[in-house]
C-alpha cells in the first residue's frame, strides 16, 4: 500500500463504522416505535378507546422510538469518547438532531391530549 492509501484507510473504516452505527440506531428506534404502537393501539382498541385516545397513544409511541434512537446514538458517542476515538461529523450531526428531537418530542402526546380534552 502506498502512503496515500494508508492515510485514507482509517477514514474509510471510520465512515463505514459511522454508517453502521447510524443504521443500527435507526433500526432500533423503528423497532421500538412499531412494537410500542402495536401494543398501545391494540390495547386502545381492545378497551374501547376512541380515535383521540389512539392519537395520544400513537404520539407516545413516536416518543419512545425517538428516545431509543437518540439514546443509542448518545451511548455510542460516549463509548467512543471513552475509547479515545473520534466519530465523524455526519454522525455527530445526526446524534445532535436525534437528541433535540427526543428532547422536544414529549410535547407531542401532551399537545394531542390537551387538544382531545378541549374538543
TrEMBL record:
Q: Which residues cross the membrane?
A: 21-43, 55-80, 92-117
* UniProt keyword annotations, A-Z: Membrane, Transmembrane, Transmembrane helix
UniProt keyword Transmembrane, yes or no = yes
Q: What is this protein called?
A: Uncharacterized protein
